């Protein structure tokens, strides 16, 4: 059975680590206050089923010793994937006897859990055996040492597939990872077109940044629809296939939120980053991905571009929530219909 090396101990990474530790070996690669906490304390893992204290093996990335059979799971934000992949790529992988059998890039499968469309391409610069994953888990991390997941009856869902040329190592890892996730109450869909699934999710993700802006909910809904429509036009112009939102649903009975453990709507990953005052966020790889594709293919993406600029500027000033700017998006949508 594989050991999972989960890089990143935020909401999704810590949730995967806590769940998978019930079934197999897990090591978490963390940094800063997360690493300091996990070295000496258990993770508090709150779900709709109850509260657990989970001891995790946590290391800094320069302390990590890789072994044959490991599966690398990148749970950092999209903007950090390239740096992490480069750091891991040429680390030696050891056999049970301690012999070096190759490098991580050559021998180990790597799973990318990120939103957006860029993570798989970034990893492919180094790694031969990549697996894309689209994660549908309502996980919250706003306090060091505690993660909350509101999903029920399962913790959430994951779409898994190889984005590029299939390899035997990659195919085996998809099957094993899927089985391990199902065993710890995470729904899985194995797909031959993970890129299409990721493109479908970005149509939802471009609206995430609206959660940090103050204003009327009706305006958020209006601008959210306009952002999504604009993203659809851009993806079409770029020749990127996407599906319907219903294609993301794995279990129709699944619900995502549980107010009893304070996992409520409107607090997705971008909101959590801004609520913590984090200086780094995914917006440049969500709305920014649409802006990039629009520039490359000569089409308009003024709303996604404006939202990216609003949140980028706000992040430079320390983040926070209930920020100004929604009214400017409403004005832009009214004055300049996208084309």
Automatic annotation (TrEMBL):
Annotated Pfam families: ApbA, ApbA_C
InterPro entries (UniProt xref): 6PGD_dom2, KPA_reductase, KPR-Related, KPR_N
SUPFAM superfamilies registered for this protein in UniProt: Nucleotide-binding domain
Residue ranges of domain Ketopantoate reductase N-terminal in the record: 5-152
GO CC, alphabetical: cytoplasm
Highest taxon listed in the record's lineage: Bacteria
Ketopantoate reductase C-terminal domain: residues covered: 213-312
PANTHER family: 2-DEHYDROPANTOATE 2-REDUCTASE, PROBABLE 2-DEHYDROPANTOATE 2-REDUCTASE
Name used for this protein in its record: 2-dehydropantoate 2-reductase
